[in-house]
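User: Earlier you gave me the apo prediction for this protein. Now I'd like the version with zinc ion bound, so I can compare the two side by side. Same sequence as before, with the ligand SMILES added.
Assistant: Got it. Here's the input I'm using:
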Amino acid sequence: MSDFVRNCQLCEIPMKSSPFLLCPDCLQEKEQVRVFLKKNPQVPLHELVDSTQIPISHVKKILGID
Ligand SMILES: [Zn+2]
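And here is the structure of the complex with zinc ion:
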């Protein structure tokens, strides 16, 4: 089944078969959030959103607080 398609867990766009649950754009956002939180572990959510420019709905899903 090489044409297996699923939706990105974050933005829900359909994507081609991938070992990841997220599309490339969202993987990048997730990495950005991860790096930012590593540098600023106690940062308030709104500051994370301001600094990374990632939509808060995505950030919440990335962090599993949706
Ligand atoms: Zn996505």
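For your comparison, keep in mind: The pocket of zinc ion is lined by residues 8, 10-11, 13, 22-23, 25-26 (CB under 6 Å).
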